[in-house]
From TrEMBL:
Record domain Thioredoxin: where: 1-164
Family annotation (PANTHER family): THIOREDOXIN-LIKE PROTEIN HCF164, CHLOROPLASTIC
UniProt name for this protein: Thioredoxin domain-containing protein
Annotated GO MF terms: oxidoreductase activity, acting on a sulfur group of donors, disulfide as acceptor
Gene3D superfamilies: Glutaredoxin
Lineage: Eukaryota, Rhodophyta, Stylonematophyceae, Stylonematales, Stylonemataceae
Pfam annotation, one family: Thioredoxin
Cited function: Participates in various redox reactions through the reversible oxidation of its active center dithiol to a disulfide and catalyzes dithiol-disulfide exchange reactions.
InterPro entries in the cross-refs: Thioredoxin-like_sf (IPR036249), Thioredoxin_CS (IPR017937), Thioredoxin_domain (IPR013766), TxlA/HCF164 (IPR044241)
Amino acid sequence: DVEQKKKRFELDVERVAVEGRVELRQKLAKALFGVFLGVAFYLGEKYTFGNPITLLHGMEQLSPTYEVAVSNAKPTVLEFYADWCESCKKMAPKVSKLETEFAGSVNFVVMNGENPDYRELLQKYRVDGVPHFALLGADGKLQTTLIGKIPMSVLEDDLNALVNGEELPYIGFDIEELPY
């Protein structure tokens, strides 16, 4: 009788140990899966074109240089942005769409305004806020600046006028100067 109890006790101990290892493995697997999902979501957001900062950086990398843009006899949009700028982020997909629509007829030069390499251009075009769009004619001369979270129709109308050699409908548009 004592031997049977001892044997049953040993079996119970072994069963509890096995159950504990299984439970530990399950918890470990869940934790690792959670970490994997977290990393996947983080990287997916950070490194996809769903992220406006990634989109802006990509647009900047694909931009022609300023020197090429002002010398190729096409109108040019100089866009100055900053990573922290919420308006820049919100406008990025729409500006990218306009860039696609006007591909071949308008240069889009996208520049991070916090990059010291662009200091001279920031001064030349008097960039004191972002987003800041400087629209240049085919001759490379400044036609107007559009500042702030401007309606895309404003930028589109000015681009159409630039391409067609017409007078720009919006001159010196600054969203901060609108009466409330």
